[in-house]
Amino acid sequence: MLYRETGQFKISYAADQSVFPIAQDRWFVSLIIVIAIFVIPVLASEYLLQAVMIPLLIFSLAAIGLNLLVGYAGQLSLGTGGFMAVGAYMTYKLTTAFPDINIIIVFLLAGLIAAFVGLIFGIPSLRIKGFYLAVATLASQFFLLWMFNKVAWFYNYNSSGTITAPPREMFGVVITGPMASAETRYLVTLFIVIIFAFIAKNLVRGRLGRSWMAVRDMDIAAEIIGIRPFQTKLIAFAVSSFYCGLAGAMMVFLWLGSAETEAFSINESFNVLFMIIIGGLGSILGSFLGATFIVGLPIFLTNAPQLVGLSMPIDMQKHIEIMMFGSLIIFFLIVEPHGLARLLQILKEKLRLWPFPY
Amino acid sequence: MLRNLILMLLGAVIGITGVVATTPVVEADEQFIPMLVYRTGPYAPSGIPVANGFRDYYTMINNRDGGINGVKITFEECETEYNTKLGVECYEKLKNKGSTGASLVNPFSTGITYQLIPKASVDEVPILSMGYGRTAAADGRVFKWVFNFPTTYWSQASAFIRYVAQQEGGEKNLKGKKIAHVYHNSAYGKEANPTLQALSKKYGYELVLLAVDHPGQEQKATWLQIRRAKPDWVFMSGWGVMNQVAIKEAASIRYPMDHFVGNWWSGSDADVVPAAAGAKGYKSATFHSPTSDYPVHSDIIKHVYGGDMSKAKKNSFGEVLYNRTIVNAMFAVEAIRTAQAKYGNRALTGAEVRWGLENLNITENRLKEMGMEGFTKPVKVSCSDHETGGPIIIQQWDGSKWNIVSDWVSPIREVVRPMVEKAAAAYATENGIKPRSC
Question: Do B185 and A265 touch (CB under 8 A)?
Fold first, then answer.
């Protein structure tokens, strides 16, 4: 009754090709964006912005990047943390060497460098498939982190090997560094994520996305219909690494403020992989849902005992949190192995028939 | 399919409520101190005695004196797992609690301290990183909000070299010696490197740097290198599970333990006990006594545990790190007390406590009043010197307890202070900070 496309006729090619063909979807997404831009910064506390919303958005972007590679192009990768580190360290190098360049442009340049690095580590993908490729990409994770730890040039020879976000302004407002308010950093993050989520959504609908999916589903068949697997896979690696690099740069500059290589450890690679598995492989929406689940749930579980007025020792609380988190992952994967995005799709199908299912 | 729908709604509810932050109410006019602790994970062996030490000292002050000049201390723990991201989350969660917000923060993690330093001046919450964190913060002109007294990694490394010189019979004998530094491959472990390198140039010893990756459970390769290089002395900057693994490995290659010296974060009971007899002779730096027979300890037993010694022992009472935290908590309480003398006996803001930290002067007399005479050294902080360059002392594990085996060793200030000032100046230019004049 509420969610029905009956009567929504597409009378132009533009309407037929729109990103959200159903009006209700359009309104819903617009509503969420409006709330995210106008309501959340006003109502949310600094803790909520800093500890929940900003990391959620940044990890969503990283998850979108990995989803393009794993979910759409079918190339399993465990190098996410490494590519994020490239983005972060390159942003640091570029912005300390050229302080006058707008920080957003520096982010994009760092993303391009990450894309190039991803391209190089994507080369084995022509010969190696599946789990073996995952192991090969694992090498990039370890090699890149080792390099950023070992070569002092990357952190400007300071004694601790830590990179720090210097203050940078845009339109007279400080957007990075300690003086930047949580609201500003949140809004900058939000705009970047909206723009790049939109680009990703369009990429996967277009020629490139279709060729990725063709390679994913059967690379020999794809080759026969005229898709070059090597280029297609390499582009997937490059685009994916660009997104991850951008997310890594934002992680240090808009969220943490400073970081050492440990912030990009193998755990982050696994976390992002879990996000897309739980959210839904081959779904942009799924990347957001997965990031919400992985980032939001532990924070919720930490605060939950206090919410209901329960006080318990902090270590027991942590252990319960870890157990709950693990069991919820198993639970959701049993209920819907195709991820939260698929669950949402089922809901939409139900809603179409509601309240008179047949 | 209805089942799936319900499950999904459940998921949605979790998602929505998850983002609603909570703010428990704290009684008015109580001094709130946030506690970033780690009682779980690979660093728990070091984190648990620290967390217990803070809790016990604050509780003792509340129970014995009714707070600091009548102002009760409240505190809340937040689990960080020694993870910088969780540490920042905890800090954000706790910084505005209490009637006046966080009075000061003791991160007990160099990584988290690095994250918090830029935030400190904005949020006006002073950081007391006692003997850890960013060494350059010793220059109070640049780092107004950060304190790392009584002494720092660089001072400690220089004091270690001075100790080695004493043992080898003079500085001239350092020439041609080989000293290895086994360090946690993070901001923390790397801290001592520049000092060791600078002193290596000055005294002519050969420095071997060996990094151990987080969390430090795998060190076979490192100790194989030590067996091959045969250094005369090994200095270690480890933390958590890394310490006990290193001591076990050193014992297994039969490295002479009395030439193996840990820094003050690598010398607690949890580090040596797992290696059993192998750890005998292992040394470590410290800046307080390892024993717990001072009046302050009996006060804790009396006012926190009601005289129940065995219960106290279960809560890490008497361990080295526990004692160190007593020193740390004492600094925090005394800084608040100092600030109260200026601002009045009420709950103070972070900015007011900062003044107290900067004007902290703990004399021998004051130590005696607090039941800590001989437990640690007096400290006098100043506007330009947030470190005070206090001396260190070497303790040795005899198989069942730690014993002090050296005199107080002073750091080589004429080498360390110029390095601190240089590093602080570099930080100031990079981050656009104008140093204040002192």
Answer: no
